[in-house]
Design brief:
Layout lengths: L2 H13 L27 E8 L25 E2 L5 E5 L4 E5 L5 E6 L9 E4 L2 E5 L3 E6 L16 H13 L28 E2 L2 E2 L5 E6 L5 E7 L4 E6 L7 E9 L5 E7 L10 E7 L5 E6 L13 E3 L5 E7 L2 E7 L2 E2 H19 L25 H13 L1 E3 L2 H4 L6 E3 L4 E3 L12 E3 L11 H9 L3 E2 L15 E2 L3 H9 L14 E2 L11 E4 L3 E8 L7 E6 L6 E6 L8 E4 L5
Parallel strand pairs: 6-10, 26-27
Antiparallel strand pairs: 1-20, 2-3, 3-4, 4-5, 6-7, 7-8, 9-11, 11-12, 12-13, 14-15, 15-16, 16-17, 17-21, 18-19, 19-20, 22-25, 23-24, 28-33, 29-30, 29-33, 30-31, 31-32
Helix pairs in contact: 4-7
């Protein structure tokens, strides 16, 4: 048995096969969620934001083929209760009080890349290409000047670690998934030390550990000298998805987000819980997150206040709602958890087995080129992520023409990572709606004056700019697979459908037909149950690499790369 198969059977089969339960088929995944009922015991909606740019609205882009809608990208608690929400579409951060009052907390740069938000002490950071200091949070009104001394190196380093815990991939960890299929990343049984999303002083550090008995626990160390607390996860390992420590409250209680599947394999969704532990690590209750209402999954959708208020943000194509969640005591939570998982399993129906899909060739019989290997697929993907090029005035185009209003004939929008980069050397092949291009051809076209990318998308092909260069999500995957361009709806013509996520190998894909596709790399080296993948997306503006939680992959179908094995 070669190294690749050993990895599959030892790590991926142990941790990924359960991820097959997140798959949704047909239109059920995309259907708008029903409104929460009045008096929902799980919590209260304290604020509803319509889609828009007004003072009491949050921006949400339009869902289009090959480009899923993007809404608010996260939330973090404010220093005086309430939360801060990065509204990247409208280039701002909003502060929302516990009573639902919203006000401007800070502006972001135009077309901000803000993908996440954290708070270290008073210092607030958003994640763009790297952590960007936004201001100092005094708990009310606007954040203080960006030039505040709060933006010291120590909080910045802590913010970087917080972002890593929620999916950001630091450059110094790229080598762990450097294009060799044999390298799936992570030490078996024990994950890296990560940091919770916020904290006063030194933030809590935690890691996920799988014991010799197969049971999973979260280990937290805090204080000086560090004191270790072990939090047992009372979910069967075969049903457990990604895990994250949200933080601790002022009473020393710990809050852990855990994603649970109803069946070991099958079609369905991952259910989100928040488990609460006393200061000594004993389980004392939990929260039933109303995640059935969660349609656009941000990078961070839960935030914990220092007094123990748990906030939940759920977005839809036309609105965003902010909840305050209610805890259930130990016994009541256990009953609710058991009944909910049983109900989800019954709705999903029996598990269907399709055998070993890897024995079947792709339906089209299209040649993939001589010698295509999984290592070559990941090497090509990394080349798209790291390619460097010079931004000329023709590539940059005037600010006045950078707008996405198709009804007014404006169909080109500069990728955010290129903002302010005129005349500079940048990294990454940009996102270009409808784009399918080799790296060599991209370099030639930009030298000829083509625009660098285009993140303007629309429901019909009239947003494709023939004088822009780059790749969209399916164009990128098609290039790494060395096949003719296929949209997300047609990738199945050259790929093998896989019976479960356990069958994924480096270079395979996770595809949501008509929406988006990601290229599978490995389990995340963080060890927290998330998945590392490449993607070309409008949110990062180019080809990027990041980790995705189980819930973020709901509705994505596993596809085997068209390699001969």
């Amino acid at each position: 048995m070669n190294c690749l198969n050993i990895i599959l059977k030892s790590q991926l089969n142990r941790s990924l096969w359960l991820l097959s339960a997140l798959l949704c088929l047909g239109d059920a995944c995309a259907a708008p969620a029903a409104a929460p009922t009045t008096g929902d015991p799980r919590g209260t909606v304290i604020k509803t934001f319509p889609r828009g740019s007004g003072a009491q609205q949050l921006g949400i882009t339009q869902h289009t083929p090959e480009a899923p809608a993007v809404g608010p990208t996260g939330l973090v608690e404010s220093g005086n209760e309430g939360v801060l929400i990065p509204d990247a579409v409208n280039a701002r951060v909003l502060r929302v009080s516990p009573t639902g009052k919203a006000e401007l907390a800070a502006p972001l740069r135009p077309h901000s890349l803000a993908q996440d938000i954290v708070r270290q002490g008073r210092a607030v950071y958003v994640l763009e290409d790297k952590p960007v200091y936004v201001g100092s949070d005094t708990g009310a009104g606007k954040l203080l000047d960006r030039a505040s001394t709060e933006a010291s190196s120590a909080p910045a380093a802590a913010a970087t670690a917080m972002f890593e815990a929620n999916g950001a991939v630091p450059e110094d960890s790229i080598g762990e998934t450097d294009g060799t299929p044999e390298n799936s990343g992570g030490t078996p049984g024990t994950g890296r030390w990560l940091r919770a999303a916020s904290g006063e002083g030194q933030p809590d550090e935690y890691r996920t550990v799988r014991g010799d008995d197969g049971k999973v626990r979260v280990e937290v160390r805090r204080g000086e000298p560090p004191r270790m607390t072990r939090l047992p996860i009372a979910i069967a390992p075969a049903l457990l998805g990604s895990v994250a420590l949200l933080g601790t409250d002022e009473d020393g209680r710990f809050y852990v987000r855990a994603e649970q599947f109803a069946q070991q394999q099958g079609v369905g969704r991952a259910k989100v819980w928040v488990l609460r532990y006393a200061r000594d690590g004993s389980f004392d209750g939990g929260y039933d997150v109303p995640d059935e209402f969660l349609e656009l999954v941000p990078n961070r959708y839960l935030a914990l206040s220092r007094t123990g208020t748990l906030y939940f943000m759920e977005s839809h194509p036309d609105r965003t709602r902010l909840w305050s969640l209610n805890p259930f005591p130990h016994a009541q939570f256990a009953r609710r958890q058991e009944e909910t998982i049983r109900r989800i399993a019954a709705q999903q129906g029996p598990i269907r087995s399709s055998g070993d899909a890897r024995e079947r060739d792709s339906g089209s019989g299209e040649s993939t080129g001589a010698g295509l290997t999984r290592a070559a697929i990941l090497s090509t993907a990394e080349a798209y992520r790291t390619a460097q090029w010079q931004v000329t005035s023709a590539n940059y185009r005037p600010d006045a023409v950078s707008a996405c209003v198709p009804a007014r004939g404006k169909r080109w929008l500069r990728p955010a990572y290129l903002e302010g980069q005129l005349g500079k050397r940048v990294t990454g092949i940009p996102y270009n709606w409808g784009g399918y291009i080799t790296i060599a051809a991209f370099m030639q076209r930009t030298a000829e004056g083509y625009a660098g990318g285009n993140i303007c998308t629309c429901r019909k092909g009239d947003c494709v700019d023939r004088r822009a260069a780059g790749v969209d999500c399916s164009g990128f995957v098609s290039q790494t697979w060395n096949v003719k361009r296929r949209t997300t709806a047609r990738l199945k013509e050259v790929a093998r459908p896989l019976p479960s996520y356990a069958e994924l190998r480096p270079g395979d894909a996770m595809n949501k037909p008509g929406s988006h596709v990601r290229l599978f790399v490995s389990l995340s080296p963080t060890g927290n149950g998330s998945i590392r993948a490449y993607e070309a997306s409008t949110s990062c503006g180019r080809v990027c690499l990041r980790d995705f939680s189980t819930r973020q992959l709901e509705g994505y179908l596993p596809l085997g790369a068209p390699v001969k094995e």
